[in-house]
From TrEMBL:
<keyword id="KW-0233">DNA recombination</keyword>
<dbReference type="GO" id="GO:0006310">
    <property type="term" value="P:DNA recombination"/>
</dbReference>
<dbReference type="InterPro" id="IPR052925">
    <property type="entry name" value="Phage_Integrase-like_Recomb"/>
</dbReference>
<dbReference type="InterPro" id="IPR011010">
    <property type="entry name" value="DNA_brk_join_enz"/>
</dbReference>
<protein>
    <recommendedName>
        <fullName>Integrase</fullName>
    </recommendedName>
</protein>
<dbReference type="InterPro" id="IPR013762">
    <property type="entry name" value="Integrase-like_cat_sf"/>
</dbReference>
<dbReference type="GO" id="GO:0003677">
    <property type="term" value="F:DNA binding"/>
</dbReference>
<dbReference type="GO" id="GO:0015074">
    <property type="term" value="P:DNA integration"/>
</dbReference>
Length: 119
């Protein structure tokens, strides 16, 4: 959805009920997220807007985005972005397959590798 904003409005902003432009800050997003989680019958204290940062980094790494771009997009100054690089189920299965094939070759027999991994 595209909503026109004023030239001096913050990059991430929205128009409130009174017609004013409001910056979409971390606090505003967390409040919105808590409301939506409550409405869905979930416990909002178990979630945080920060989860989206990790999820975005994981998705970007899975799409083979360069680390420096993931780091810049997530606004990381430190190397903490590396802590958020979690493997996808497909990547885990690929590692399992390589290890299984190596073990099979060492043992001289075929080992079964699951067709897909259930997470």
């Amino acid at each position: 959805m595209s909503v026109p904003s004023k030239p001096k409005a913050p990059l991430l902003s929205y128009t409130n009920a009174a017609g004013g432009q409001v910056a979409l800050t971390h606090a505003v997003f967390d409040h919105w997220l808590r409301d939506k989680l409550k409405a869905a019958g979930l416990q909002p204290q178990k979630y945080s807007g920060h989860s989206f940062r990790r999820g975005a980094a994981t998705l970007e790494f899975a799409q083979r985005m360069a680390r420096i771009l993931v780091k810049n997009w997530g606004d990381w100054v430190s190397d903490a972005v590396d802590e958020y690089h979690t493997m996808t189920p497909v990547q885990r299965l690929a590692i399992l397959k390589v290890v299984s094939e190596s073990m099979a070759a060492a043992c001289g027999r075929q080992m079964l590798v699951p067709a897909r991994m259930v997470v």
